Amino acid sequence: MTYPLPQKSFCLIRHGETTANRDDIIAGRLEVSLTDRGRDQAKSLQRCAWPLPCALFASPMHRARETCSLGFPGRAYQIHAGLRERDWGVFEGLPLHLLPPRDGQPPEGEDWAAMIARVGAAIAECCERAGDHLPVMICHSGTIRAARLLAGQPSVGRRPTNAAPVHFVWRDRQHQETLHSEMTYDR
Q1: CB 82 within 8 A of CB 53
Q2: pTM over 0.90
Q3: Is 115 exposed, middle or buried (0-12, 13-18, 19+ CB in 10 A)?
Q4: What DSSP string describes 87-110?
Q5: What angle do CA 64, 180, 161 make, to 5 degrees?
Q6: Sequence-separated (6 or more) residues with CB below 8 Å from residue 77
Q7: Could you tell me where the DSSP H helices lie in 2-140?
Q8: In whole angstroms, what is the distance from residue 19 CA to residue 72 CA?
Q9: Residue range 52-111, pLDDT digits in tens
Q10: Separation between Cα atoms, residue 167 and residue 160, nearest integer Å
Q11: What per-residue confidence (pLDDT) applies to 6?
Q12: Is pLDDT above 90 for 4?
């Protein structure tokens, strides 16, 4: 079962570049480190102007927590397990070109439909916890792709850029994906 997204704007940010991203490796649930470039990407989030006060959430995976700490230094954030990356099972650690189709369940991994439901529930809970603050969630490429489907987009779209805010602005009774530099929020 999928969860409808709350009628509220929120922002998802993919972690900074990792060694797996750099080397074209399927990371999934593997703990991989940010590269120096990934740390710089995360630090660049400090320069973003936010139109509303933010409530920060992060995947429990180290790459997301480090991105959050570097991008929002000194700010408290909550860990939410539902924001973690998909478990690719036996494919984790293999070259990216061996990634199986997204639909279905890889051997020893997480079913795509189950991941979409998990992500929907996580976003809904983070939005509720955020109250009147903008929920900003540091997560993973797969998490953002699942959110796109939950927001009614026809496909998962391109892989999100590392450490670049992806806004889902609630406007006209739908979520509209908007670049950080172009977004505005209605109060």
Answers
A1: no
A2: yes
A3: buried
A4: --GGGTTSBGGGPPPSSS--TTS-
A5: 45
A6: 56, 57, 58, 65, 68, 138
A7: 19-22, 36-44, 62-71, 112-130
A8: 22
A9: 799 999 999 999 999 999 999 999 999 999 999 999 999 999 999 999 999 999 999 999
A10: 12
A11: 92
A12: no
